[in-house]
Amino acid sequence: MDKARNRLRAALVSVGDELLSGRTVDTNGAWLGRELARLGVPVARRYTVGDAAAEIQEAVAGAAACAELVIVTGGLGPTPDDVTRDAVAALTARPLREDAEVLARIQELFRERGGSGMAAPNRRVAQVPDGATKLANERGTAPGLAMEHGASVVVLLPGVPREMRGIFRGPLTALLEARFEGRLRPVHVRLLHTTGIPESRLAEEVARCLPDGTGPVDMAFLPDLRGVDLRLSASDMTGEEADRRFEAIEKALQGVLEPWRYDAPGGDLAEAVSTALRASQATLAVAESCTGGLIGKRLTDLPGASDVFPGGVIAYSNDVKVRVLGVAGDVLAAEGAVAGPVAARMAREAARRCGAEAGIGVTGVAGPGGGSAVKPVGTVWYAAFLRGRVATRAAWFAGDREAIREQAAQAALFLLLRLLDGRETPDP
Length: 428
Ligand code: AMP
Ligand code: MG
Description:
Layout (H helix, E strand, L loop, with lengths): L2 H4 L3 E6 L1 H5 L5 H12 L4 E7 L3 H14 L2 E5 L10 H8 L4 E3 L1 H14 L13 E3 L3 E3 L8 E6 L2 E6 L3 H19 L8 E7 L4 H11 L8 E7 L2 E8 L4 H19 L3 E2 L6 H11 L4 E5 L5 H7 L10 E4 L3 H6 L5 H7 L4 H15 L3 E7 L14 E8 L2 E8 L4 H21 L7
Parallel strand pairs: 1-2, 1-3, 3-8, 13-14, 13-15
Antiparallel strand pairs: 4-5, 6-7, 7-8, 9-11, 9-12, 10-11, 15-16, 16-17
Helix pairs in contact: 4-5, 8-9, 10-15
This protein binds adenosine monophosphate and magnesium ion.
The site of magnesium ion has 6 residues, from loops.
């Protein structure tokens, strides 16, 4: 076998009629692809099949022919349409036997939950193919099952994403480390988040700072509506060495990235804003027009949001801008709702009326209608207020309604972050 073919690869089989009809999106396949990539095991092929034994067998056989690791998700439950266990047991010629340990655990789970105890169909979940390794499921009844099949390992996991992930991260990773000893190539990753700079320009500036490239470190640009992430990754080295190399690259890029960069372990700028608010003992209130609550949503997605976010106003109509936020009617009449003084007033009044030290105001034309020659679709005015001072900016965002709103929310959050960091100057 040549080297490329000797490389450890995986193939995935997602089972479920609902995946084919589109009622459920195959998030398991995407998640497993990412997790396996982190272990240095690329996914070579993915199959999606319905709840039919013959289809499942054909897919598993095909997967095993091209990859040493086959992971099947779905169809392990107690209902008659769950046929994965039986189909794979038959394919691998392993008789099914009721496993006393699994059965006892299921019965105990049902006792704990109260009610009338275990319903008869659940007994099926305790069937284990002869010689299969059980992978404990802390979050549900059906354990994962791993078995040798030819030169491959075939692993069956429940379809419920939470259960599948728990088993993968726990007992399955341990099993893979043992079974493929020395052949996993863990990938070390560092993400550098930027917003407000187009991908092409970022790529140009990065290339200028790193004329000799990045050596064994891979660099990828990952753009979305909110910004561009720079992904550094390296394998075949220790975590310490990877950190050292990432550090050196970050240092070389520091000057270029500084105006655009933010740090957030979960990736969301709202997280960076929350952290900065905590650090400067400030709370934030919002007044959102065209973003319709997007900023508030992102802030409240974070656990513990109430420490820094008292609330805000969705000031969509002019009437609410005037009556709830006290935007002067004559300013609205003279400038229209999409204007700097309106955004500034919204930010300031949101803070004042909610008793917060900081405020954000956003007003813009999200389209598709409502644009004009002077204020075309995509025109957004936004402002950030902090302890008596306000910074007001305008932007012209491209894209559809969703794109404009996402970019507006991101730009407003970033403006506030930079005020909090002392890197942005308020209006004169
Ligand atoms: P099952 O194990 O087939 O009984 O599936 C249990 C639940 O997990 C169902 O709600 C499925 O829709 C869901 N599910 C199954 N496979 C997937 C998948 N590949 N991605 C996301 N959800 C899934
Ligand atoms: Mg199913």
